[in-house]
Amino acid sequence: MNIFKQLLSSRLARTRTRVCTSYRASSSFFHFSSDASIQVHSQEQEVVIALGSNVGDRLNNFNEALSQMKKSGIEITRHACLYETEPAYVTDQPLFLNSAIRGFTKLGPHELLSALKKIEKEMGRTKGIRYGPRPIDLDILFYGKHRINSEILTVPHERIFERPFVMAPLVDLLGSDIDNDTVLCWHSFSKRGLFESWEELGGESLIGKDGLRRVLPVNNRLWDWSKKTSVMGILNLTPDSFSDGGKFDSVGSAISRVRTMISEGADIIDLGAQSTRPMATKISVQEELDRLIPVLEKILELPKIEGKLLSIDTFYSEVALEAIKKGAHIINDVSGGNLDSDMFRVVANLDVPYIAMHMRGDPSTMQNSENLKYDDVCKEVGDELYERVRTAELCGVPAWRIILDPGIGFSKKTEDNLDILMGLKRIRSEIARKSLGMSRAPLLIGPSRKRFLGEICGRASAVERDPGTVAAVTCAVLGGANVVRVHNVGDNADAVKLCDSMLDRVGRT
């Protein structure tokens, strides 16, 4: 990291003298400090825009603002995480949601400002008091490589480097690797670079403290996944799953199992109606729905399901769409969108959390020799998983709705699974090279009763692998997992509680 800082500092020094430009207002034109004039709107510029809201349905306000920005000529390419924050300056008002987007526009800086002000006005913002309540607040943080100072617009936005609720989402939009000269110029706008400025404010140590919570919206609430590890209980509605196929393929037995998992401490119930074990035969959309929907409808009638989340394990977009319409909350896609080209578009329109898992091939091919070749499994899983969520983001699934799963047991050998369990922070760091925001998404790990545990522990039967599962879950939680997906909820919930208590003692990172 010290070497990185030295290289960045050196590049920033050169950038300040060569790359970044300043503008001053002059009629309809802007000018370089060298007095060479250009029309800014004649070329595309990369921009960063901050979003804030604390009046009405804050998340819906964000969604509406994003939609209106796209219609106004802003191509959104990246989303930061979502933050719930205490108000600054004027403190007697509701909590804010804050985030930021990165994108491209051909609008000139004042045209962009006018477009954003128009969106604010149409969404009900009035002048009011400065820093007071507002349904939406849209601020230009960066505009290309340029500094802008006019009577109505200052870029970089004033006071940007003193505000954690601005800096946190801004840094999310970057990678630890500098991906282009424009981003390098953004770093140069602060004295020591954006990363150093964020660290000077407190950096990641501020998250969860001082009114700055990183959250994921689900089921009409904001989930702060850093507070405790969530336990996801598996409900297989299949006749051929590797562990419990055929045990819960009737509505009655499935509902009984759900009741048990809830009583044992499950936070999430994951319903799967299609087996994804190695060499599993793919069933049709209709057959999957026929297995799934009757059980889902009955689960939703259970009084004890109040406050719990329902996840749907499917790689079919049609199944995802129907299940969410019926009342499910999360889509869990083992293919990361690879097995249905409509999945990302459907999830984007549904506005629900999306679990993207790493897998090469499909269940019938994932364990062939080609899909098991890795030179560095943590690096390659991180890179390949990032490419899937990056594609999802470009299709409209914001980073604040994504959950990552490195895919224990899917196109992995025993040693690969062990490397992943021991290397969760490494996987995050590989993703962080390209997107710090994506690297900070909740991380789900599903080692439950997998074959590699049987190979190591000498347990041929899947149901004998619960002790090994508890050990794997313990390793995962201590290594940074936020959700664990298990068959045996009771034993693993106890393991999770112990791990959370230990992490709370030393301070979570």
Automatic annotation (TrEMBL):
GO molecular function: 2-amino-4-hydroxy-6-hydroxymethyldihydropteridine diphosphokinase activity; ATP binding; dihydropteroate synthase activity; kinase activity; metal ion binding
GO cellular component terms, A-Z: cytoplasm
InterPro entries, alphabetized: DHP_synth-like, DHP_synth_dom, Dihydropteroate_synth-like_sf, Hppk, Hppk_sf, Pterin-binding_dom
SUPFAM superfamilies according to UniProt: 6-hydroxymethyl-7,8-dihydropterin pyrophosphokinase, HPPK, Dihydropteroate synthetase-like
Pfam families, A to Z: HPPK, Pterin_bind
Domain annotation Pterin-binding: ranges: 229-497
Pathway membership, UniProt: Cofactor biosynthesis; tetrahydrofolate biosynthesis; 2-amino-4-hydroxy-6-hydroxymethyl-7,8-dihydropteridine diphosphate from 7,8-dihydroneopterin triphosphate: step 4/4; Cofactor biosynthesis; tetrahydrofolate biosynthesis; 7,8-dihydrofolate from 2-amino-4-hydroxy-6-hydroxymethyl-7,8-dihydropteridine diphosphate and 4-aminobenzoate: step 1/2
Keyword Transferase: yes
Keywords tagged on the record: ATP-binding, Folate biosynthesis, Kinase, Magnesium, Metal-binding, Multifunctional enzyme, Nucleotide-binding, Transferase
Domain of life, per lineage: Eukaryota
Database matches in Gene3D superfamilies: 7,8-Dihydro-6-hydroxymethylpterin-pyrophosphokinase HPPK, Dihydropteroate synthase-like
Catalytic activity of the protein: (7,8-dihydropterin-6-yl)methyl diphosphate + 4-aminobenzoate = 7,8-dihydropteroate + diphosphate; 6-hydroxymethyl-7,8-dihydropterin + ATP = (7,8-dihydropterin-6-yl)methyl diphosphate + AMP + H(+)
One GO BP: folic acid biosynthetic process
CDD domains (alphabetical): DHPS, HPPK
Cofactors, names only: Mg(2+)
Record-stated family: In the C-terminal section; belongs to the DHPS family. In the N-terminal section; belongs to the HPPK family.
Official protein name in the record: Pterin-binding domain-containing protein
Highest classification ranks of the organism: Eukaryota, Viridiplantae, Streptophyta, Embryophyta, Tracheophyta
